[in-house]
Design brief:
Helices cover 51% and strands 0% of the residues. It is mainly α.
């Protein structure tokens, strides 16, 4: 795999990981014991720490990408191992 393809796949894993990590560790102002600020949603986070979120997202994305690369290299799971594709019984195109 070329490095540009690997970089593109890593960016996809990173953007997916944002949605996986973002909901964890979020506390609302009510849960933190503070007063509600007028004009904000009651579900908005009390403190938004983008540095911590970026670090967590990078760790999750790196772990997922390493697993993907290992699977690509050693072919643990392929299209032929998945039974719902049924590739052996597919008729030939004419």
């Amino acid at each position: 795999m070329r490095w540009t393809s690997a970089l593109a796949i890593y960016i996809l894993f990173w953007s997916l990981s944002v949605f996986l990590v973002l909901p964890f560790g979020v506390r609302t102002t009510h849960e933190a014991g503070g007063d509600h600020v007028a004009g904000t949603a009651e579900s908005s986070p009390h403190e938004f720490r983008p540095g911590l979120i970026a670090r967590r997202v990078t760790i999750v994305a790196t772990v997922l990408f390493v697993l993907f690369q290992l699977n690509y290299r050693y072919e643990w799971i392929t299209a032929q191992t998945l039974t719902f594709f049924n590739l052996q019984e597919a008729p030939a195109l004419r």
